[in-house]
Amino acid sequence: MNDSVDLHLHSTHSDGVLSPAALVELLVANGVRQFALTDHDTVAGLGEVARCAQGAGLHCITGTELSASWLGRTIHVVGLGFDPDCAPIATAVDTRLALRRERARTIAARLDRAGAPGSAALERLAGTAVPTRTHFARALAELGAARDAAHAFDRWLGHGKPGHVPSEWPALEETVAAIVAGGGTAVLAHPLRYRLSAGQRRTLVRVFAAAGGGALEVVTGGVAPHQIETALGLALRGGLAGSVGSDCHDPALPWHRPGRLAKLPAAVVPVWDRWAAAPTRALEA
Ligand code: AMP
Ligand code: MN
Ligand code: MN
Ligand code: MN
Questions:
Q1: Probe target for ligand 1 pocket from 133, 168, 190, with the most ligand atoms within 8 Å of CB
Q2: pLDDT digits (tens, 9 = 90+) for 187-200
Q3: Given 3.40.50.150, 3.40.50.300, 3.40.640.10, 3.20.20.140, which CATH number is that of 2-92+170-277?
Q4: What is the pLDDT of residues 216-256, one digit of tens each?
Q5: Is any ligand 1 atom within 6 A of the Cβ of residue 150?
């Protein structure tokens, strides 16, 4: 069953390259049977993806990936199985979209000052519902300011670069609480990707669990076996269930391909088993 679950996926509703329909086709081709679309700070794609999933016979869980702040870092919290129409999630999303729109203007201005075509990039983002740095990276590459999107992060948008605007997202604890209030499970996404010491990471997991967090991504796209062991230790120590998600934004990137991840270690309770014990909300199309 492990192979067939992917609870962290992006579409064109945030910074992924596939539409929900194309994503569902990819999931079917790769043998994924149960999934959640977890676009950044939005639930806009959930109705569409649920309809596609139903047509394809896949089990679709509601999802989103909320940006949160803790210790001055941006932490990503995946929400799963919440009521997509509930007020806590709507408020969480609206708050972050307003912050993102404001941040996009700041990023553009800073890029302009640094000699990059920030305003021109911002114009290209005009039709984007959830403006992310990924959109800036693609626009900067198209405008000739970088070889490709990855180079745009290295040169302009990554940590310590001119277009890196430290974000003040809602607090981690508040983010977890919103997901729980919406009837969902909060999952600490890609726990090894944050700029934290090992001790800070353990504190993060403790704070996350104390705030009501339910699971940690033990298997996520791009991790090595020893990293899975480290993440497993964090989940067990925090009393959290384990989740699995490719974090696929683009099927061309081999380390994030859905249906090709390592198995969730047997030592941790799978988050989907907890739902089986207390059924969570699946989206009805
Ligand atoms: P944002 O939430 O707007 O700060 O954008 C973060 C997104 O940018 C992440 O979800 C990744 O998809 C992408 N990203 C972050 N760092 C990099 C990087 N170094 N190279 C490529 N994409 C990145
Ligand atoms: Mn992303
Ligand atoms: Mn993330
Ligand atoms: Mn993600």
A1: 133
A2: 999 999 999 999 99
A3: 3.20.20.140
A4: 999 999 999 999 999 999 999 999 999 999 999 999 998 89
A5: yes
